[in-house]
Specification:
The protein has about 70 residues and is mainly alpha-helical. It has three helices and no strands. The radius of gyration is 14 Å and the shape is globular. The model has no long low-confidence stretch (mean pLDDT about 75).
């Protein structure tokens, strides 16, 4: 079911912007209104495809993280 859903997103149109990322793996996150996560840092390059709703970002200088 998830494979069919991911295929329906038509992410092929994003490939010109993805460079080498199109050869990498994918993760799928889903949450309902009012959910979220605590502050965290990604260990690799990320690309987000927002389907619906909003996401609030906080960017921290990497010098302050580690």
């Amino acid at each position: 079911m998830i494979i069919e859903f991911l295929n329906s997103l038509n992410t092929k149109r994003l490939e010109p912007y993805m460079g080498h990322l199109k050869e990498s793996w994918s993760q799928f996150f889903m949450g309902r209104q009012g959910t979220g996560s605590s502050m965290h840092a990604a260990s690799s390059i990320n690309m987000f495809y927002m389907i619906d709703g909003t996401k609030k970002w906080y960017f921290v200088d990497p010098v302050s993280v580690w």
